[in-house]
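cron nightly-structures :: item 1 of 1
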Amino acid sequence: MAFGIAFAGILSGFSLAIWALLQGHSFPVVLLAYSVAGTIGAVLFIVFALIRTEQRSPPVHDGAGQQAR
């Protein structure tokens, strides 16, 4: 999961930085866009990973080999 978080942050930050460069923004703005988009991308990855984990939680057992209702 750590690689996914890093990859999501780098990819989102890099794509927004390239877009900002193509739009003609200054270098400090590009660096700010990279850091902000990278942070948002990483946080969104974590949120989606946690939501997915809750949806795939295993069934609860009562200890006697039966599934609890």
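cron nightly-structures :: done
The chain has a mean pLDDT of 85.
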